[in-house]
Amino acid sequence: MSHDNSSPSFLQHHFHDVKQQYETAKLGMWAFILTEVLTFGGLFVAYVVYRSWYPEMFINANLLLDVNKGLLNTVVLITSSLTMALAIWAIQKKNKNLSLVMLILTFILAFMFLGIKYLEYSHKFEVGQLPGEYYSYMGPEIAHINNPHIFFSIYFMMTGLHGLHVAIGMGLIGWLIYATAKGNLHSEYYTPMEMIGIFWHLVDLIWIYLFPLFYLIG
Amino acid sequence: MIENQKNYLTYPKGIMSWLLTLDHKRIGLMYLFGGLAFFFLGGLLALGMRLELAAPGNDFMSNDTYNNVYTLHGAIMVFLFIIPAIPGALGNILLPLMLGAKDVAFPRLNLASFYLYTLGALFTIYTIIAGGVDTGWTFYTPYSTTSTSNVIPMTMGIFIIGFSSILTGLNFIATIHKMRIPGLTWYKLPLFVWALYGTSLVQITATPVIAITMVLLILERLLGIGIFDPALGGDPVLYQHFFWFYSHPAVYIMILPAFGIVSEIIPVHSRKKIWGYKFIAFSTLSIAFIGFLVWGHHMFTSGQSVFSQIVFSFITYFVGIPTGVKIFSWILTMYRGQVSFTPPMLYALSFLFLFTIGGLTGIFLGAVALDIHLHDTYFVVAHFHYVMQGGTIVAFLGGLHHWWPKSMGTMYNQTVANICCLGVFLGFNGTFFPQFLLGLRGMPRRYATYDPQYADLHNYSSFWSAILGLSIFIAIMNLLWSLRKNNKLDPGTNPWGAMTLEWTHTTSPPHPHNFEEEPVLEHGPYDYDKVIVEPTFKK
Q1: Which domains occur in chain B, in start order?
Q2: d(CA B500, CA B184)
Q3: What are phi and psi of B494, to 5 degrees?
Q4: Cα B404–B409–B414 angle (5° rounding)?
Q5: Residues of A with CB below 8 A from B229's CB?
Q6: Whether B234 contacts chain A with CB within 8 A
Q7: Which of A35, A45, A131 sits opposite B208 (nearest CB)?
Q8: Which residues in chain A are contacts of B216 at CB distance < 8 A?
Q9: For the whole model, what pTM was predicted?
Q10: Do the chains contact at A14 and B171, CB–CB below 8 Å?
Q11: Could you give the ipTM of this predicted complex?
């Protein structure tokens, strides 16, 4: 509005220049990442408290999880972090098509992650390995162990909140694909891609903590 | 100055231009009026309680009704008025102006956080219509997971308002870091900006924890996940840890902006440079930091080890140091200044007096041995209100009177405002000082009835609460009455002779884009020893 005609169209009216706009977005994003870490932090505290209360129960209940699916999901999500980073690299190098391919790959990998998670969840629903009151599984792995439902309460809370983040991330990546294809994002202006990239790496990072804490404690 | 020039209140026109506005000043005003509406509602609930407590028996309401009334009073005042009101209203209006910026860093996000606030408010209104909630504003488990009242809509509302608060904090942090004009370095910022910075840091770090706690509480009720339920192997005390890990820092979300307001009012109305600028700035940050380490002092009687009690008690005393630094700095600012008894200054002086009492009684409660005696008595109620009402709300009223001519372009009747301020001061002390005595004598909080031995003090407290309520009501009406027709000030008015950018470089009310040209910094915010800015007051 108050900028002259030489200013690029993506510069919002209340910023001086592109650099200020970019740095502000980046700072805001990192502050947001901090809030995300603290949101999950509450649940990590719950995990620590109950694991220290019921160490044996955690180890036995952990045997009920499918390590292979968890490992596969870890590989899928780390790969998606790589393709996300490559998408940003490609757009910096003015390679719009490669960037689009990488974004679409990221999207597909995110979808795969949720698909594998769905298989895991549905199995748990079938056998009754559910949170709190709904828990009904009485298999040999947890014989003589009290309160296995607490493990699954925390498992579903944490992986559920994480899964919600993956789903939101998919929506954001979908929007990135649209914006890149339309040419709104290009080598001069790709801030949204970089910010969503930071978010996506956080989602990946949280899973890297969740995987050993739930699947590998036996 | 030209007559009828553009200002943000009149340009652009139309209801949609308000609802879809990205202008921080308009968003701030919407927060202000939303907050004041809930302040009114919360105040009526408070007066309802005092009416019931004027005499020992169940005179006007049943015990169940009383439980609903105090819960809603607390939840509305804390989550819908105090937490959003100062950062959301005064912070939004003033922050970009004080930085010389055209807007906050993320204007759309700013509007989004106002909408989230509105959505949370709708959940609260639904809670009231559906029959209220009776757990107390702290929603302690296990009662909150078994109560049949509307816990879910109320906590859902708090969850949503939490996000509004996080987004505002995030926006302010980015704004303060990146939107300052060239030359406006950190030590040249007005102290209100430092206060908002400290507040915002707490908002983005503490609020996510209450959000996830509310989710756990809701899931506990809906699905019985058992994390807080001892019958399922869970721990209700964990809820208290989670709750106070947020809610103690939240006390500083509520009080730090008030400190900021007082740091602005006192130098301007004493016409003297602030004493100890850096001390005040860094005490803000240290209060924000220490605030995260003291939550256990709310739980001295809930079952924690003696060792943690001692540690939490010890760290609690540390809060007194930066707070004392601020109080002494303000007093030294006034020393040998030209103090004028304008309405904002009278509120700031009331603040100093009331907040000091609130702060010192906090030290009493931080001592384990005394707290075990005083826990859940009226002493706690009185301490909390001396800090939150005597501190935050009195400072908020002072700030409202200080910046009213700036944001609305009108001047209220200053004599009426001064009388109201006196009424608030006397009414407040009359209402809450007896509650210290009641608490010391063992009167427990949250009861609709009491033993006749407490009748005199309760009766006294109720009488003065009417004066307090009436004074605040008239003070606000006095402000609103100034908005009548043909009462406009000259756009160049600077009635207090303040020298921060919002007074020296833009009109009252400000231009839609804040400044016609980007301001050039000529002096610091409190350089009364170097530059003379004369008060101007014209109609």
Answers
A1: 15-504 (1.20.210.10)
A2: 11
A3: -135, 75
A4: 50
A5: 132
A6: yes
A7: A35
A8: 42, 46, 157
A9: 0.95
A10: no
A11: 0.93
